[in-house]
Specification:
The protein is an alpha/beta fold. The chain is about 40% helix and about 15% strand. Helix 5 (about 150-165) links the parallel strand 5 (about 135-145) and strand 6.
Length: about 525
Amino acid sequence: MRQPNGSSSPGAGDAPTVPGFAEAVEYADQQIQAIALDELRAAGVYRTPLEYYLVGTYPPLKYLHDIGEDEVFRGVTASQNLYLHIPFCEQYCTFCHFYKEINAEQSWVDRYVAALLDDISAVGQRVSAQSPQGLNASSVYFGGGTPSYLRAHQITRLFEHLWKNVRTSPDTEITFELHPGVVRQPDYEDRLDAIAAGGVNRWVFGIQSMDPDVLVKLNRGHGRDEVYRLLGLLEQRGIDNLNVDLIFGLPLQNLRNWYDTLTELMAAGIEKFNIFPLMFKRSDPITRQYMRNPELFPDATDRLRMHYMAEFVLSSAGFVRGPVFYYAKGRVHSQQQQNKFDSIEEDNLVALGVSGFGYIGGTQYYNLCDNRQYVEAIAEGRAPVWRGHTLPNEERARRAVMFGIRSGGVDFDALGRHYEIDAKALFSAEIARLERLGLVTVDGSRMTLTDLGCTFVDGIGYLFASDEVTSHVAEANELILSPSQDPVDRYDYSPIGRLDLPGGIADHYRDGVRA
């Protein structure tokens, strides 16, 4: 593993040539000049930085209602993707919008882990009542929060219980998220060994940037030294399936330090990247930073430049995009991501732990988003489900389009057979508009995004939401006085019905806005 050396050059020998900084900027500018942004804005596809959010669930949380376990687990598939949420962190990163507790006492972490074990057992029983094989994982994903916050004995206990209750195959992808800063803990090597012993075969860690000023502004709790120490520890253990998270659009980020981050990590041997634009939620500290000091952040044009720079630099080095925002060199990026976008109807997503969200048998659902409520529900033998909705076939088809375009594309004939609707006729107006804008190509019954469409994938997905869903969300918004405090708005991972006003996201409490 290479040591830090500032802005790194590509490897020697037969390795592809990585474009220089000036060349990458020039390429990005050429791409932007060819985009009719005003036309995309008028079509509802282009969204400003403050408005932007990815389509994480459909329907949005604001559309969902109180739901019981019988409805959630009805119709579960014979194999599933499992998500386990570990809601603990050492610091509050300014951009993070997921549920977590900061520096929780170990006694409370033990209580949560015990509740999660009981949750696994109970969900296994509920799934077994519907599907004879019970929990049968095509992928397993430990997210957070910071899963590596757990100590070695907690990690071992969790894995031992999981494998007693979950079937796997040699092809099952098992992913575990790490935080580089945890290498400062005296027992971190024990934690890494426990994770490896648990069977993890894909390791994901958030870096976001390699620029020290950016990292401090984000309150990340790590620097470049911790990144290289973690890479070294993983290399010593023969672990090479590494996946790095990066964000563009961050405060104090510019084209130069963005380019340097990409090339330095490529030179360090990273062959998988998740690269997302910064997303704003009203409950996140970074949103308040942006509203107070927007000049600290890259503007909308520089965000586009950063996107195209990453595409150019990575593709020149042999990386392939797929799904959108995910890049891999010489291997499949992630089976879990492909399943989520391409085959969730055949491999449902089952949520375990607080604040997880899943999709089972056509039902989009969320677990409780409060640790104490979650632990209490488990102690009382109740499923910790919070809100959900079982989608009729048309809404399931809309969801399939929103997610399918991110990866393998959409076959409207297949959608029609699966959901018993004329999908191409249903979406004919949207398809025609997207074709005219150069965002998609249609070959027979199959629609795929163009490179331009990949740049605006979430705005495109938004167009397929139904009037029923969008109008219901608008009604729900009327009841929300404080997005930063309201639990439904806080944990709604969707751009549909964002509470945006000119100049910022209105919060009647925090911003002094009056109705």
